[in-house]
Amino acid sequence: MKRDHDQPHVGHDDHDHADTPAAAPTASCGPCCGESPQLVPAADSPVSTGLRFRVPAMDCASEESEVRRAVEGIAGIRSLTFRLGERSLRIDASPDVAEQAAASIRRTGFEIHPWPQATTPGGESAATADDDHGHDHDHAPGAGVGPAGIWRGDAPGAGARSVRSPHTTHVNCLGMAIAAAAIAFAGIDVFKKGASALLHGRLNINALMAVAVAGAFVIGQWPEAAMVMALYAIAELIESKAVDRARNAISGLLAMAPEDANIRQADGAWLATPVATVPVGATARIRPGERVPLDGIVTEGTSAIDQAPVTGESIPVDKGVGDPVFAGTINQSGTLTFKVTAAASNSTLARIIHAVEQAQGSRAPTQRFVDRFAAVYTPAVFVLALAVALLGPWVLGWAWLTAIYKALVLLVIACPCALVISTPVTVVSGLAAGARRGILIKGGIHLEQASLLKAIALDKTGTITEGKPKLVEWHALSAEVDAVLAEHIAAALTAQSDHPVSRAIAAGLKPNGVEVKNFTALPGRGVQAEIDGAVYVLGNHRLIEDRGQCSPALEATLSTYEKAGRTVSLLASDAGPLAVFAVADTIKPTSRQAIAELAAMGIVPVMLTGDNQATAEAIGRDAGLTEVRGNLLPEDKLAAIQSMQARYGATAMTGDGINDAPALAQADIGVAMGAAGTDIAMEAADVVVMNDDLRRIAETVRLSRKTHAVLWQNITLALGIKAVFFVLAVFGSATMWMAVFADMGASLLVVFNGLRLLRSTERG
């Protein structure tokens, strides 16, 4: 079975896989290609560079490392970028150097072909969808490995065969021939890869299986050798199909965006146009039930949009003129016309997929540990098997064939694939599970670190609160004031102003037909106008003080509002103040629940804001926070994160990715809220919540903790099964076919255990 077999790595981060001249692993993976590939420019992401190739047999981290080693030392290679899910390699080098690198790779036993130039509208190669077929070819039947000889002895298993008569000899020869044919049919690729690994002085699963099967055949255990190879091939096929589910969990999102868009032409007619050819600025139309083909801004119509593929929101979102729509989302009710704001290859959906692909390529800390462990483990077990074969007869008095057979069983059970594959499958399943919930986690390291969080800093505006001022309360200041008239006058005044506070008041009052004359803005204080022959003003505390219209009672009222963190505006005439209007940035409906969930998980939530301390404390009390810090500049937020790290430990920071950049960079995990369509936030943050629901952070921590638990379950399971069979192989009666079942069974168990992360998301 394949170690990282078909792990859903699609893109690799710079630290582990890109911008390095070459590196290392453990398994060569395919026959040489006879012709030199003709180099063509790669067709990939708009920001990608270099020449791209398809390596059909490269389907695990071990084989990727083999390819790296093949080009090590070739001058002129600026960087290598691997995508195991696509079995692709990008070589950033001049064409002649890339040709030299391709030739070196072929010499190690890998086929390598230029990447197809044809691409889908989303910018992905059309050949990507055929990767599964390439995998099946990796295990295609071959021809021709024969027995090296016939030994007689007392090895366990099928037992030695005594040649008692010509008839028996013919039967044995026929059985050996059938076994040899079966081994060749099922294992030709294993022998090719194993031979290549041994020739290059490296040990991997293919080398172990090749030596074990060949050794069993030579000592007369040819029925068992054939069965072991057949079981191995079948188990690999089952495993590859299971792993493909995790590998394709994200790439399947590409199918959500339609291939054509209904675009308005110059003559006003509507024409179905391939999305790859639609320019930014074009006008598109979607009918009820259709998927949005491209990102855009609504220009006509109203409807509800199911945004679950992008933001993870379970409830459709109402859209009207000026609202954004995202490719891959589903129009529910009305017809919408929208202006295209991004090309198909740069849509929000395409960037989400690209970011997750890059995240899949970055190795988590546990995966790095497992890879280092496996690099030592495999040679160590090979040495142990050799010691059993050579020392067993001298130390324990075994027959030579018994010792050799036990050593061969050890080689089969020694396969590290269950251990190695346990981490990438689990991590990718966790990343995909998060993406399906609208949580974009940009790397396995961040997925694991989230489980260690002890504190989280929450920005106020746009994270805890809506980020938009809203009229929360208003009332007349005395019983003598006509409240209805005051409302009409205030609505008329604020309708003339574009100040955010005025817009909030206007949105909270009933519109009316009051005529306004001589409207004047009073910078820094408010507005003034004439209505029905009388002059009215609507402004802040300072304006009323300047007019000499403040009183102790009014000051007390204003102080109460200001302590509650509300911005106050007053309506006044020449006779005095008439009404007070309180505006505030209101708390999101989900913030209280989210903060309570974080606290219940043992994570200390702290609000950091640039607002004054009184406002911060008022919002904090309303949200259920016990610690708030106000009057903070960007550098103050940075210092606050440092103090929280020293006090609590691992600390996360939420923000918009721009003003909070220093704090986001300092935090152990940076989280961007409401980042759908925001390039800067997606680039700056480690975790992106694709809607502005603060509860997604608690979900991220829960997912991280579950992923961490599954990772160590898999590692314990893989090593535990091997430990049991090591003992049985040396001191018990374990056979080779039992070893294959144990090894492949362990691999399948860890794969399906990792996939539980996807299944739990599907149910939820």
Key terms:
764 residues, alpha+beta, Calcium-transporting ATPase, cytoplasmic transduction domain A, Calcium-transporting ATPase, cytoplasmic domain N, six-stranded antiparallel sheet, 24 helices, 46% helix, 17% strand, elongated, disordered N terminus
Give the secondary structure arrangement, pairings included:
Blueprint: E1 51-54, H1 61-70, E2 79-83, E3 88-92, H2 95-107, E4 113-114, H3 131-138, H4 166-199, H5 205-218, H6 222-251, E5 260-264, E6 270-274, E7 283-286, E8 296-300, E9 303-306, H7 308-311, E10 317-319, E11 324-325, E12 330-331, E13 336-340, H8 348-361, H9 365-396, H10 400-413, H11 417-436, E14 439-441, H12 444-449, E15 455-459, H13 460-464, E16 465-476, H14 483-494, H15 500-508, E17 517-522, E18 526-531, E19 534-539, H16 541-546, H17 552-563, E20 567-573, E21 576-587, H18 591-600, E22 604-608, H19 613-623, E23 628-629, H20 634-647, E24 651-655, H21 661-666, E25 669-673, H22 679-684, E26 687-689, H23 695-731, H24 736-763
Parallel strand pairs: 15-22, 15-24, 22-23, 24-25, 25-26
Antiparallel strand pairs: 1-3, 1-4, 2-3, 5-6, 5-7, 7-13, 8-11, 8-13, 9-10, 9-12, 14-26, 16-21, 17-18, 18-19, 19-20, 20-21
Helix pairs in contact: 4-5, 4-6, 5-6, 5-10, 6-11, 6-24, 8-11, 9-10, 9-11, 10-23, 10-24, 11-23, 11-24, 14-15, 18-23, 23-24
